[in-house]
Design a protein that fits this description.
Elements (H helix, E strand, L loop, with lengths): L1 H83 L7 H7 L15
Length: 113
Amino acid sequence: MQGAGVVVEAEKNMEEIVSGSGALNNLMEQIAVSTVQQEKGIEQITQALSELEKVTQSNGAVVEELTGSSDILKRQVVELESRTRNFRLASEHAEYQYGADQPAPVGVPVATF
């Protein structure tokens, strides 16, 4: 009878081993699925970073263009200021004195718009 007990004990051990290997197999499958999902996630992150880099480079180019445009506008403003530095409008007194329907006397500059 001692041999039968050993056989029963061995059978239990074998069932536990088979059960444990099934659980281990399930865990390995879960790990494989998780790995594939992580790979896809990493690919998406890599693609997003690539797109972000493209947008950043594009923004840098736009900034350079705007800087150039700003410099041109600044030069134009300076030129316009120098051209209009001596420009003066007729005094308010001349407007009231001569009115819109009466021309100003010769020699009195009146700006018109």
